[in-house]
C-alpha cells in the first residue's frame, strides 16, 4: 500500500490490500469480512462506508462498500487506485435481469458495461468508448466458477444512472441489444481502472427479474449472494 493519506471519504486506520472487493452495500462488506476473512481489521468507517482487510486462504484482501451509483463508485475507486495503490478492483453487486434465460441468484460476469451515463465525457475521447473488464480477471473468474461448478453468464451489462426511469421503453431496447442485466456502478469502475492501467471486474447476482416480476428481499441481497463472493475472493493476488 502507498503512503497512508486521509481523504474526505477514506481515513485508513489499517492496511488496504492491493485487491479490493467492492459491494455497493457497506453491510455486505461487513458480512463478507465476518464470514470469509481471517485476522480482520476495519480500516474505514467514514460516512459509514465500512472497509475491512483480512486474509483469505493466506492472501491479503480488502472489502469496502461503495454506495449506489457511478458518482459514488467513481469517488471510491479513484481514491483506492490513485491514493491507496489498489491494483485489482472487483465489484460484487446485484442486478435486475433482462433476458429470459436468467433466474434469481444466477451469476453474471460483466464483460462489458454499457451505460446511459455521461461519466465518459471527462476523458474527451474522440469517439464512443466501450468500458470493458480486465480480461485477466475475467478469465480467472470464469475458470474459478467452472471449477466450483457455479454456472455463470458472461456478457454485456448496463450501468444505469436511473433506477426509476421516465423512459418506459428503455428496458426493451437494452434487452433487444442483448444486455444481460442492469446495475449502477460498473462502467465508472471500468473507466477509472482503464485510465489508471489497473484491473477491474464486475460480478453480479440476479436479485430481481424485470420481465418475470421476481425479486429477492433486502436481507437476501445482503447475506445470501455467497457464490459470487466466493468467486471474487479467489481472485485475490
UniProtKB/TrEMBL annotation:
One Gene Ontology MF term: uridine phosphorylase activity
Keywords: Glycosyltransferase, Transferase
Function per UniProt: Catalyzes the reversible phosphorolytic breakdown of the N-glycosidic bond in the beta-(deoxy)ribonucleoside molecules, with the formation of the corresponding free purine bases and pentose-1-phosphate.
Family statement drawn from the similarity comment of this UniProt entry: Belongs to the PNP/UDP phosphorylase family.
Catalytic activity: uridine + phosphate = alpha-D-ribose 1-phosphate + uracil; a purine D-ribonucleoside + phosphate = a purine nucleobase + alpha-D-ribose 1-phosphate; a purine 2'-deoxy-D-ribonucleoside + phosphate = a purine nucleobase + 2-deoxy-alpha-D-ribose 1-phosphate
GO cellular component: cytosol
HAMAP family: Pur_nucleosid_phosp
Site positions per UniProt: Important for catalytic activity: 221
Signal peptide segment: none
Name of the protein in its database record: Purine nucleoside phosphorylase DeoD-type
Amino-acid positions noted as binding a purine D-ribonucleoside in the UniProt annotation, renumbered to this chain: 9, 183-185, 207-208
InterPro entries: DeoD-type (IPR004402), Nucleoside_phosphorylase_CS (IPR018016), Nucleoside_phosphorylase_d (IPR000845), Nucleoside_phosphorylase_sf (IPR035994)
Any GO BP: purine nucleoside catabolic process
Annotated Nucleoside phosphorylase domain residues: 20-229
Source organism, top-level taxon: Bacteria
Organism: Alkalicoccobacillus plakortidis
Keyword Glycosyltransferase: yes
UniProt binding sites for phosphate: 24, 28, 47, 91-94
Active site: 208
Amino acid at each position: 500500500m502507498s503512503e497512508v493519506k486521509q481523504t474526505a471519504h477514506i481515513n485508513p486506520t489499517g492496511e488496504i490490500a492491493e485487491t479490493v472487493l467492492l459491494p455497493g452495500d457497506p453491510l455486505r462488506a461487513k458480512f463478507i469480512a465476518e464470514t470469509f476473512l481471517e485476522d480482520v481489521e476495519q480500516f474505514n468507517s467514514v460516512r459509514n462506508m465500512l472497509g475491512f482487510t483480512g486474509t483469505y486462504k493466506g492472501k491479503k484482501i480488502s472489502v469496502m462498500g461503495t454506495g449506489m451509483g457511478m458518482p459514488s463508485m467513481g469517488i471510491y475507486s479513484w481514491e483506492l487506485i490513485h491514493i491507496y495503490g489498489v491494483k485489482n478492483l472487483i465489484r460484487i453487486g446485484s442486478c435486475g435481469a433482462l433476458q429470459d434465460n436468467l433466474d434469481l441468484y444466477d451469476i453474471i460476469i460483466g464483460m462489458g458495461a454499457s451505460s446511459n451515463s455521461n461519466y465518459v465525457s471527462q476523458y474527451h475521447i474522440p469517439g464512443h468508448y466501450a468500458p470493458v473488464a480486465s480480461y485477466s480477471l475475467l478469465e480467472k473468474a470464469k475458470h474459478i466458477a467452472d471449477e466450483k461448478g457455479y454456472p455463470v453468464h458472461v456478457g454485456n451489462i448496463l450501468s444505469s444512472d436511473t433506477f426509476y426511469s421516465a423512459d418506459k421503453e428503455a428496458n426493451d431496447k437494452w434487452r433487444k441489444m442483448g444486455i444481460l442485466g442492469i446495475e449502477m456502478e460498473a462502467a465508472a469502475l471500468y473507466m477509472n481502472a482503464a485510465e489508471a492501467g489497473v484491473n477491474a471486474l464486475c460480478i453480479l447476482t440476479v436479485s430481481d427479474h424485470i420481465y418475470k416480476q421476481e425479486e429477492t428481499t433486502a436481507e437476501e441481497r445482503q447475506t445470501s449472494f455467497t457464490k459470487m463472493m466466493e468467486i471474487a475472493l479467489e481472485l485475490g493476488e
